[in-house]
């Protein structure tokens, strides 16, 4: 599965702190932009049987409803936390997996076996959505940055730099945590090594004492054999 070009940590952070009304407007603006950039996609979605799919990112405090089909224009709305109306299907997963799904980057054969992705309800709705997305070249990174107009290129460079910086920071944090785990492992093993060392030292001291006694006996034996009184 090809990773999303849109930095998932950045998306997660922005969508977490954004007030619901700001997030809803941003989603509407992105959908309008995508409709202009991918008119065939929206036409194909409209031709499908009408479905409502709930999308629930496991690492976000929001839920979304994606409605498409029935010769109507597809749209996404932010679900009210108190809204318990079920959809035809539900897709749950972290934001990185969901971004790849929405960009058609999850292989059809692996759709129901992708790690971190849970699908419930009418699976035909999810398969229809995935197959339609797969027929279109979708790059959310390009779609999002194009919303900056003449500042698209600087926005691309800025988002890429931020994504790389966050990834580097995450990598360094992971290495630091691993080093702490290694230190704890070494500390836990230290008493056992210390006990073994002390036992070996005691055994060595015993051997040294026995050798010293044998040397004394050997000297006494030699002295007795050389004594004229014993001749």
Automatic annotation (TrEMBL):
GO biological process: ubiquinone biosynthetic process
Pfam family name, one: SCP2
InterPro entries, per database record: SCP2_sterol-bd_dom (IPR003033), SCP2_sterol-bd_dom_sf (IPR036527), UbiJ (IPR038989)
Residue span, SCP2 domain: 43-134
Stretches that traverse the bilayer: none
Protein name: SCP2 domain-containing protein
Organism: Rhodomicrobium vannielii (strain ATCC 17100 / DSM 162 / LMG 4299 / NCIMB 10020 / ATH 3.1.1)
